[in-house]
Every structure is written in structure tokens, then in C-alpha cells.
Amino acid sequence: MDVERLDAMPREEARELLIACCGAAAWVAAVLAARPFGSRDRLMAAADRAWTALTAEQLAEAIARHPRLGESRAPAALGARERAWSAGEQSGARAAERSTRAELAR
To answer: What is the pLDDT of residues 6-33, one digit of tens each?
Structure first.
């Protein structure tokens, strides 16, 4: 995926892609509203601005959408793309040293 494709993508398709990145609806709406980006730097700046503007409740929404590292199953509400990303994260966590896994479990 590149920025040019994200910029040209229909709104609903872009929304689905973005919600796979961050489960906070307010973040997704803010990033969508910033399109077109034109460059990776502008995309990242928009994502950062949207993230720092989230309330505690919205941050909790984003976090709740993803399984904790070390959990064996992703929430059923996740789409195929999110489940694949989560599986990659979980795989990385399983390969970590025991002390790192203990810290993640806290």
C-alpha cells in the first residue's frame, strides 16, 4: 500500500484500511478528513495529530479492538486484515525472550 493508492481509494475502502490500523473511530475520521496526503510525511503527520487529539475513552476504544500480546485469539469483530496483522504481532511476542514476555503480560 502506498500513499497514492490511499489517496485515490474510495472513502469506505480507506476507512476499512484505517480502522485496521487504529480502532478509534475519531482517529479514523480525522485521518480520512485530512486526505489527500500526497506524501508519507503528510500522512504520518495527520495520523500523529489525530492520535494526540484522542480522549482517554477514544484511546481505550483503540486498545480494546486489539488483543493483548500473548493472547491466543483476536476479537471476533476484527476483519481479516486486522487478524493477519494481529497474528504477526502475536508471533513476534511469542519469539521474544521470557523476560520480555513477562513484561508484556503485566
So the answer is: 999 999 999 999 999 999 999 999 999 9
Amino acid, single-letter form, for residue 81: R
User: In the chain, what are the domains?
Assistant: 3-63 (1.10.3330.10), 70-105 (no CATH)
The whole-model pTM stands at 0.68
C-alpha dihedral, 48 to 50 to 51 to 53, nearest 10°? 120
Please say whether the beta carbons of 37 and 1 come within 8 A.
Answer: no
91 three-class SS:
helix
24: exposed, middle or buried (Cβ count in 10 Å: 0-12, 13-18, 19+): buried
Closest listed residue to residue 55, CA positions, set 30, 20, 26: 26
